[in-house]
UniProtKB/TrEMBL annotation:
Keywords, ordered alphabetically: Membrane, Transmembrane, Transmembrane helix
Protein's organism: Planobispora rosea
Name the record gives this protein: Uncharacterized protein
Transmembrane segments: 36-56, 68-91, 103-122, 134-156, 184-202
């Protein structure tokens, strides 16, 4: 009997199954590296600008107009959202049926979540003073992101993404209670830096 035609031992069969499961998992689970890096950079730079504008005690550390900080954060988050849509789009080629529909609905969830956030912030933001208005916009946007991150970690499933979402939710709550400057610092360093680290770790594990 040829060496290639001999029956596989139980150990070899198990090893082959594990290898195939790894290959399938990599095809079905999107590579989240760009997603994490894009959002991490958006938060670090965008909320970093807010931190320099507000300062921890209400005294600005740099003369950055609030409109510039808001435009910077909004623009970077919009780019990050496009990266997220592209990441989910990776699932459309190899996956069909319910999984493909799940990916499409997930992309729409980001859109509708931020649409609802925008409408709430516009409605109530005009009733607040400047610093509190920017805090409202920032905290609502991060609340939407935190929830969607945790849902993403459950749906795909990607445990680091769920953990990151939970961490963002905690930082967002603590920062909102502490004030605009502290919120911007916590999100820039904690959420932004955490997302970048998560992306790098995720990429390293995927290459194994």
């Amino acid at each position: 009997m040829d060496e290639d035609e001999r029956p596989l031992s139980p150990e070899e069969t198990l090893r082959l199954i594990e290898q195939q499961e790894t290959v399938v998992a990599k095809r079905l689970i999107p590579d989240m590296t760009l997603h994490h890096l894009a959002w991490g950079a958006a938060w670090f730079v965008g909320f970093g600008a807010f931190f320099l504008h507000h300062g921890l005690s209400g005294t600005p550390y740099a003369r950055i107009p609030i409109t510039v900080a808001m435009a910077l954060l909004t623009g970077l988050m919009a780019l990050a959202m496009l990266v997220s849509v592209f990441t989910v789009w990776q699932l459309r080629s190899p996956v069909h049926g319910a999984s493909q529909e799940r990916g499409s609905l997930y992309g729409l969830t980001w859109f509708f979540g931020f649409l609802a956030m925008w409408m709430i912030a516009v409605r109530f933001g005009s009733l607040l003073p400047g610093p509190e208005r920017s805090l409202l916009w920032a905290s609502l946007s991060m609340m939407v992101v935190a929830i969607l991150y945790m849902v993403s970690g459950i749906v795909w499933p990607i445990r680091p993404m769920f953990v990151l979402g939970a961490g963002v939710a905690v930082l967002n709550a603590v920062g909102t209670a502490a004030g605009p400057g502290w919120h911007a610092l916590l999100i820039a360093v904690g959420a932004g830096g955490g997302s970048i680290v998560t992306g790098l770790v995720s990429r390293r594990r995927r290459r194994r």
